[in-house]
Amino acid sequence: MLAVEDVSVSFGGIRALRGVSFTVTAGETLGLVGPNGAGKTTLFNVISGVQAPSGGRIVFDGRPLAREPDWRRARRGIGRTFQIPQPMHELTVRENLIVAQSFGAGRRDPARIDAILALLGLSPKADRDASTSLSLTEQKALEVAKALATEPRLLLLDEVLGGLETTTKRAFAGTLAEVRERYGLTLIVIEHDIETITNLCPRALVLDFGELIADGPPREVFRDPAVMRSYTGEAAA
Fold this sequence. Notes:
four-stranded antiparallel sheet, 9 helices, alpha/beta, globular, 237 residues
């Protein structure tokens, strides 16, 4: 479904990504981990069309995306969330989804929006102001709901569990698994919590200083000495 081929990104003299390559098959749930500043969100920006790569290319469904803007990638089935929730101010929760659906899918489907609101637990606040009436957990749920409204096949989740306490995080991870199953999605999940990645993702990639240093089952990846050094500065015993 997705091929990232030798992708590099430079900001001035800073190399944010360095020749990153991997593939994702349809139906996978892939974890993307690494220390702060490793290049995870930059990679999402390249895949979704927010950031142009300095080198390499992104191929989706066998077709290079080099010249396609973010809205066209959304129409082709690439959806994403943002690390910091970005509700559209002065719009209700439901209206946020309507705008997202119009942008990403190019049409309106009230039934799908109602189903998404119910699945993410947002129906009770559907007609309230999205920027003032939601808890942090509900704001995270709204990020996922907006992305689902674009009718993606590939969904990029950027730390949607970040900042949540353990019990809430586990429940939300269960909801994400249900979302994947309900809509037949392929997921790439940025997350720092090792337990969450291990339980949610059969496969994990690790970035460090913009380089891909590990790729495999999470329980093996997190025992890799290079991964241990990237997090702690020390090799595993």
